[in-house]
Amino acid sequence: MNIAVFCSGNGSNFQAIINAARSGLFNARITLMVCDNPDAYALSRAKKEGVKALLIDIKNFPSQETFEARIMDELIKEDIGLICLAGYMRLLLSGFINKYREKIINIHPALLPSFKGTRAIRDAFDYGAKTTGVTAHFVNEDMDAGPIILQETIKIEENDTKEMLEEKIHKLEHRLYPEAIKLFIEGRLKVIGRRVNIS
Ligand code: GAR
After folding, report:
1. Ligand 1 pocket by Cβ (under 6 Å)
2. Which of 100, 119, 145 is at the close of a domain?
3. Mutate to test the pocket of ligand 1, among 36, 107, 112, 115 (most ligand atoms within 8 A of CB)
4. CB burial of residue 145 (10 Å; 0-12, 13-18, 19+)
């Protein structure tokens, strides 16, 4: 199966997915990285790793529909069977999601449904939560709201700084996301309503 990873920034999860594929954790190729930010470090990673990158700026399109149609053309061309959002900071339109229903996964740096959005680590820390975590989930039309594949907790200790928590979260993401991808690739995920059964 061919995988496309969507990024807007650093791309450390993209790197973790590449490393996992290389180590043989799952049998799939990372054939495309889609990036909506010309300053994203993920672009350098793609270059270094020899992964084709589609840098696409929404400002060059008359609408989000045409922007996503262009991305879709590329996904079809590359015969993509799984899309992994990895710090892609843009909501996908329902037309796009419908075409790839239950074939889009996201990683979120909190225990959903708590702390949705783009500042989840900071929000959990500032809220004074004692426990947070990481969620891998299917993507549906609502933000950070699709059926949950895997979830793991992390304790926020009294002496933790925001930076320390960030480090712990990223470390967990880099293990949990490849595990979720492996389950998908092996056909072991079954979505029943809001539940994802793992066989
Ligand atoms: C990750 O922590 C990911 O969970 C988060 O963005 C970061 C991207 O880091 N995503 C979200 O907050 C989505 N709501 P990376 O670019 O180094 O993979």
Report:
1. 7, 9-13, 86-87, 107-109, 118, 120, 144, 170, 173
2. 100
3. 107
4. middle
Q: How many structural domains compose the chain?
A: 2
User: What residues make up the domain containing 125?
Assistant: 107-199
Q: pLDDT tens for residues 37-78?
A: 999 999 999 999 999 999 999 999 999 999 999 999 999 999
CATH number reported for the structural domain that contains residue 130 in this entry: 3.40.50.170
Q: Is 108 annotated in the active site?
A: yes
DSSP state of 52: E
Q: How far is the CA of 88 from the centre of ligand 1 (A)?
A: 7
The pTM assigned to this predicted structure is 0.98
Distance CA 190, CA 12 (A): 28
**Which of 100, 116, 136 is the C-terminal boundary of a domain?**
100
Please write the tens of the pLDDT for every residue from 102-136: 999 999 999 999 999 999 999 999 999 999 999 99
Coil, helix or strand at residue 100: coil
Question: Given 108, 137, 170, 174, which residue is catalytic?
Answer: 108
Say what the pLDDT of residue 86 is.
98
Task: Tell which residue, 28, 10, 9, 8, has the closest CA to residue 18.
Answer: 28
